[in-house]
Amino acid sequence: MAMEAQEIEALIRDSFPNARITITDTAGDGNHWAAEVIDESFRGMNRVQQQRMVYASLKGKMDGPNGALHALALTTKAPD
Predict the structure, then answer these.
(1) H helix runs in the chain, sequence order
(2) What is the mean pLDDT of each run of 10 residues along the chain (80 residues)?
């Protein structure tokens, strides 16, 4: 079953309560998403470290072919 934007944001928000989060349905099909997560906790980390933190916040929803979240393109950074 596909996930809704609000569900994706809620999972990320649990781990990053003060982040600016933007979720976009990139294909209009409810299966391909992009997320921009801007959070102070990313300061001093490289992009891979930042993205691992976000993927961890999804609590397994992207795991394997039966995951509820099929595709998520991530953009992460610390605030300017």
Answers:
(1) 5-15, 47-57
(2) 89 98 92 95 98 94 78 95
